[in-house]
Amino acid sequence: MKRVGNLFERATSFTHLLRCYKKARQGTRKSLRLCAFGFQLENELFQLQEELRSGTYQPRPYRYFTVKDPKRRTIAVADFRDRVVHHAVVGVLEPIYERCFIHDSYATRKGKGAHAAVFQAQKYLRQNQWFLKTDIQKYFDSIRHNVLLELIERKVKDRQLLELIPKILSNGGLAGIGLPIGNLTSQFFANVYLHHFDHWVKEKLRIPHYIRYMDDFVLFQPEKQVVKALKKAVEEELGQYLGLTLKPSATFINQRENGLSFLGTRIFSGIIRLHPDHARRAAHKLECKQNEWEEGLLSEEKYLQSLNSYVSYFSVYGTNGLRNIVMGE
After folding, report:
1. What percent of the chain has pLDDT over 70?
2. Rounded CA gap, 199 and 8, in Å?
3. pTM across the whole model
């Protein structure tokens, strides 16, 4: 396997850091820290570059908050300058991994996404009678830093970059395990962590119809007995090296007539519908946006952006009835 070097110099070039600053501020609410960084942009980037290249860079503590959507999650918010570094690292690693990620890995990748994953899952469902649907128990909290670094070292041989990545990893998690939810690096490294497993499914098990969206994945097969055997093999492979376990409440074997619940949808051979729970949450979120707009807490422009986004989202799966209810039609 060819390993790639000479990445750190490119990751820490002023031009690359400036580009990453622009990416990091996109979609970010204005804050005192963001404004201060932008006001002294040139000095801040040169200082960051100096710290990275001298090896003195240290990430700052995360800021945490909790959301419930629908289950309770703790979100970690990195300091703005650390977000620039996250973009810098992912920016040089992403092209390398894009060349070797399997086609049917759909999370946090350009040209992929949840809609594409759902439609591909329907295609595979039409071709197979049985499927194994599962996701991983506390996935982000279970990722082992040492195993992740071993996997990265299979593709990367740049010493300075391999010294920087552990600093980012050790800023979150506990005792060398776990990635904080909410960061670009966490999403990217979570995909890398299961990259080896993806190839094991495709090349060792020789399963042509397999699809993964982060830690949610489905294996499709014509025969039930084969699917049962695959479940045991998958559990062993995930546990032995990656230290992961399947979530019992989300792991089941079923046939296509009963439909496949995947990424907030119910998929059948001839139709796709939003899962009722997911539809209710989407409608509730839109109602909250409307209340914020009516109370003057949200601009009309932002409200209309949200409204158009939800209407488009509902329309993808033909949920005209739900869309009309939400729109009051």
Report:
1. 90
2. 27
3. 0.85
